[in-house]
Amino acid sequence: MALREKDQKNLEALLAFLETRKMRAELMGSAASGNPNYRDLDLNVWDAQEKGPGYKLGRGAMDNFLKDLGIKNVHFTPPVGATWCEGRWYFNYNGTKFDLIYTPWGQSCLGYAATETPEDAKKKSEK
Questions:
Q1: Where are the domains of the chain?
Q2: With b meaning 16 or more CB within 10 Å and e meaning fewer, what string describes 87-107?
Q3: Is CATH 3.30.460.10 the right assignment for the domain spanning 5-126?
Q4: CA distance 33 to 30
Q5: What is the rounded distance in angstroms from the CA atom of residue 8 to the CA atom of residue 94?
Q6: Nearest Cα to Cα of residue 92 among 115, 114, 75, 112
Q7: Of 82, 70, 72, 56, which is closest to residue 14 (Cα–Cα)?
Q8: E strand or H helix at 91
Q9: Is 23 strand, coil or helix?
Q10: Which end of the chain is less crowded, N or C, counting CB atoms within 10 A of the terminal residue's CB?
């Protein structure tokens, strides 16, 4: 996997931060497959704590985690027709775009349909 240097640094910082919150993450999407023209870093994130079946981290908790990291402009998208997904957060961290997909029990979301970030959709509509 060949990430841009700044993106690699920002990914490592985000992963280290999530680990302090007992979260696990897996890089997915085009960046993980080695595509040098990736737009953002797609992360599948889940709670590493053994809380038992049915446990979910609330949306507010994830919002607060990201705010604790200093991220101010976070866009949340609720899941639509995806039982494995509890929500998606789009944000920019130190110049790196992230698409964080929360799956409560570590269920893989490989093959999910890529969607535009709200930021990308706005730019497209302004053209």
A1: 5-126
A2: bbbbbbbeebbbbbbbbbeee
A3: yes
A4: 5
A5: 11
A6: 75
A7: 70
A8: strand 87-93
A9: strand
A10: C
Torsion region of 88: left, alpha or beta (phi above 0 gives left; psi -120 to 50 gives alpha):
beta
Residue 114 to residue 83: CA distance in whole angstroms: 16
117/123 Cα distance (integer angstroms) = 10
C-alpha closest to that of 31 among 50, 58, 3: 3
Query: Which residue bears the tokens 């889940």?
Result: 46
